[in-house]
Design a protein that fits this description.
The complex is a heterodimer. By secondary structure, chain A is an all-alpha fold. Chain A is built from eleven helices and no strands. The chains are: A mainly alpha, B mainly alpha.
């Protein structure tokens, strides 16, 4: 594995590690961004107004129930009808990544905001805050760690789905796994496993750190006093 | 778009794959629960071990499944272990956390009342803590079952003897035959939703006092939102 990773041949060309890594990171980041642009406003709105809460719950339940592989599979015949070449190799994975990233982001935005103490919201309203201000200055900051948690779950999903895409003609780091198994090349397999795992753990660790930074000092205080073991 | 004739000719195979799908998922959840219960017991006896178990399980969960399957192929070959080890590993993070959260959910007053009635630690655990933590354990089993049903599809990469309904997704893709892809994808989603609904029923039965509200505030990770969620 180390030999494979250190071999300069694997660091250049169109199937070199930099290109594959870039494919995976760029496409995962783009999917996450698109999903967040759709899911965050909807989740915050549902959380703030309490309207359509059932919709959020159903999206969560159905989102959890869709296997990534099934999502790619269902999309493939549809996109192939529009574009016989890319529609069978690139679009299914791309669309699946966006679709699978939406539920965790939406659900956590909703759960975070609706979990904010209603008395705080009433107090803000009494002080003359407008609804928009309540959301921006009271609810969103308190819900931020939970919202970041949703982005974190979505990131894990997206990276896993991008990897899986290699089975469906998609690029990215998953290619090393699929090609390695097909060619019975252990160096390539474990090199791929290392790269994929490292990327996923780095992304997840980054979000965990972000989550910690985003937790306001006041909440951190409440958290540590609530964490007294009981059983 | 759908070739119903093919579906009709393959009803037996579809049924067989559905049963295999449920078997693979059930083994994973059962073994995962047994391991997690043991780890949960350790965690409440020795508090310091919990962050360790929870952390390791979280790391395993973050690594994309395709990488784990690919890595195991060269260790355990194309055997049932290669299929089940990743499936079991992925249930751990959900189950360990929900089992410990269950144990921790027992109010302190209740524990003190039990002590006052002269229960020793063992009796207190068996007759008070265990029954009261059942609802959260079932919530964990629900998430673990749904996620396992999704992951079983990916075990189809290990060849025709695994994968449940995922087998059709792969074979259909390679034959560029949309009907077969959908025969794998749609039932695997339906299977997950049916199991999810079944668990919701069980949850309602076990906790008739719990209002919808409590269920609603769950985040994507399946735990109540708010500042007390600390991982």
């Amino acid at each position: 594995m180390i030999d494979w990773l250190l071999d300069p041949v694997h660091w250049s060309g169109s199937d070199g590690i930099p290109i594959r890594l870039f494919e995976q990171v760029a496409i995962s980041g783009a999917s996450l961004l698109i999903a967040a642009l759709v899911a965050l406003p909807v989740g915050l709105w549902i959380g703030h107004t309490g309207r359509a809460a059932n919709l959020a719950i159903n999206i969560a339940n159905i989102g959890r129930a869709i296997p990534s592989l099934a999502a790619i599979g269902i999309i493939a015949p549809i996109t192939q009808a529009f574009d016989p070449e890319l529609g069978f190799k690139v679009y299914p994975t791309l669309f699946a990544m966006v679709i699978l990233a939406i539920p965790p982001i939406l659900v956590n935005a909703y759960a975070g905001v609706s979990g904010v103490d209603r008395e705080l919201v009433e107090a803000a309203r009494g002080m003359g805050f407008r609804e928009r201000q309540i959301l921006a200055r009271i609810e969103a900051p308190i819900a931020l760690p939970v919202i970041a948690g949703g982005l974190r779950s979505a990131t894990v999903q997206v990276i896993a789905t991008a990897t899986l895409g290699a089975l469906f003609g998609f690029g990215g780091l998953g290619r090393y796994l699929v090609d390695g198994v097909a060619q019975n090349d252990d160096g390539q397999i474990f090199g791929g496993v290392f790269l994929v795992a490292a990327l996923a753990l780095l992304a997840e660790g980054g979000f965990a750190l972000l989550q910690r930074v985003l937790t306001s000092p006041g909440l951190r205080l409440a958290q540590s006093s609530a964490e007294t073991p009981s059983a | 778009m759908i070739d119903w004739g093919w579906v009709g000719d393959h009803l037996g195979a579809i049924l067989g794959r559905t049963v295999q799908h449920l078997e693979l998922a059930a083994i994973a959840v059962a073994v995962g629960f047994a391991i997690s219960f043991g780890l949960g017991l350790l965690a409440i006896s020795y508090r310091r071990t919990y962050p360790l178990f929870s952390g390791i399980a979280g790391i395993l969960y973050t690594i994309p499944s395709l990488a784990v399957f690919a890595a195991l192929v060269s260790v355990t070959g194309l055997s049932i272990y290669t299929a089940e080890i990743p499936l079991i590993a992925y249930t751990l993070v959900i189950l360990v956390r929900s089992i410990v959260a269950g144990f921790d959910s027992v109010p302190r007053d209740v524990l003190e009342a039990a002590d006052g009635m002269g229960y020793n630690r063992r009796e207190r655990f068996r007759r008070i803590v265990l029954p009261l933590s059942v609802p959260l354990m079932v919530a964990g089993l629900r998430l673990a079952s749904v996620s396992s049903i999704g992951l079983v599809t990916i075990s189809a990469t290990l060849g025709a003897s695994f994968g449940g309904l995922g087998f059709f997704i792969f074979e259909g893709y390679h034959r560029e035959f949309p009907t077969e892809i959908l025969v794998g994808a749609v039932p695997s989603i339906v299977l997950a939703i049916v199991v999810d609904i079944a668990f919701v029923r069980v949850q309602r039965r076990l906790t008739p006092w719990a209002q919808e509200q409590e269920v609603r505030r769950d985040t994507w990770e399946g735990l109540p939102s708010g500042p007390s969620v600390g991982f």
